[in-house]
Specification:
six-stranded mixed β-sheet; alpha/beta; 5 helices; single chain; 189 residues; Rossmann fold; 2 domains
Amino acid sequence: MKKQFRKMRRKPFYLPLAIPVTATLALLALGLWWSSQWHSTTVVIVRHAEKMAVADDPGLTPAGQARSAELARMLSPAAAGESPPAVYSTDYRRTRDTAGPTAAAWQTDLRLYEPGDTRAFAREVRRQHRGATVLVVGHSNTVPELVAAFGGPSGIEIADDEYDNLFVLTVPQFGAATTLRMTFSAEPR
């Protein structure tokens, strides 16, 4: 009789403990998943550096080469100790030449993108490079669209003779992106 009585008393004792333990483990797993989703992606958007005079697919002038080298020098610490960085460029010589030194400094391949659908491109970059630093090199007419597609302000204008704009967007998985607009020199500082 005593054995039967003990079994009945133990069952109700374990059940109240099992519910809070299971709920705590579930909340812990949910919290870990949620925190992993908060990694922000840093997107650096620049226009290609100074190009040579009119040609079909012009390269960079000496000033443009100096600017692209300075960009690589400035951004080299940005890729240290994190998930692999990425460098994107349109398929024009001037953008590839601007992005090339940074890709070499970051020890990553230069990836080409089509500037036609900037919103789809931004979604793809955010999906593939969560938590990483990404450099995107574009043109005076595509950089404003890219900044807006990544969640930055719209209505940015870049003159045809402006090559020194640099946009740093911090793009969280949830919430609004923050944008820092600055200029950089072709001369090392």
